[in-house]
Write a structure and sequence with these properties.
One of its GO terms (molecular function) is GMP kinase activity. 42% of the residues lie in helices and 22% in strands. By secondary structure, the protein is of the alpha/beta class. It binds adenosine-5'-triphosphate.
Length: 192
């Protein structure tokens, strides 16, 4: 039997380039990867379908899932809960695809406590905080207040990433092509 494909956790400050790198990875290897479908208590937006973008869930049902230890990581942002269930991860790996989790620091800490997942942890680092600020502004998706908030959080994430033994691979996303090559080589080696 083929071995179960790996779970790869990608984290790093907002604006560091995770989505950009992942988009390219998925495009270049269309059959190798999948994202797990998360649970959320937020309402579906127009065009969103239950079980596709998210598993839309009531707060009561979400709490039941927390209590039954169904989530490998979960968190609440702005009053809405989000979680990644083990079943959602296995849905991806059982199809022979590596499951990529794009999560933030608190989620990383929780997944770290699940050694049975055998996850690999990749951290995407900006070349400098100044460059990160430039990218966040350049993306043009955030208000000034949101940029400041994300930068404050980024400093915490960068400090956390210094903890020895947290990440299996740290990639500095300075030159995009070079960073992509490093990510591609590391992840493809995990798939062998
Ligand atoms: N190596 C790079 N050099 C210059 N600009 C980059 C590089 N990588 C990404 N960018 C740009 O930086 C901005 C932020 O990238 P992206 O949205 O991929 O970040 P992210 O880490 O996924 O952020 P979030 O966690 O908020 O979703 C984008 O405008 C993207 O085009």
């Amino acid at each position: 039997m083929a071995p179960t494909p790996p779970v790869v956790v990608l984290s790093g400050p907002s604006g560091t380039g995770k989505s950009t790198l992942l988009k390219r990875l998925f495009a270049e290897h269309p059959d190798s990867f999948g994202f797990s479908v998360s649970h959320t208590t937020r309402a579906p937006r127009a065009g969103e379908t239950d079980g596709v973008e998210y598993h839309f869930t009531t707060p009561e049902k979400f709490q039941e899932l927390v209590n039954s230890n169904a989530f490998i990581e979960h968190a609440t942002f702005a009053g809405r809960s989000y979680g990644t269930s083990l079943a959602a991860v296995r849905d991806v790996t059982s199809k022979g695809r590596a499951c990529i989790l794009d999560i933030e620091m608190e989620g990383v800490k929780q997944v770290k406590k699940k050694p049975e997942l055998n996850a690999k942890f990749v951290f995407v680092k900006p070349p400098s905080v100044e460059e990160l600020e430039k990218r966040l502004r350049g993306r043009g998706t955030e208000s000034e207040e949101a940029v400041q908030k994300r930068l404050g959080q980024a400093l915490k994430e960068l400090e956390f990433a210094e903890t020895p033994g947290i990440h299996d691979k740290i990639i500095v996303n300075g030159d995009l092509d070079r960073a992509y090559k490093e990510l591609d080589e590391y992840i493809m080696a995990q798939l062998k």
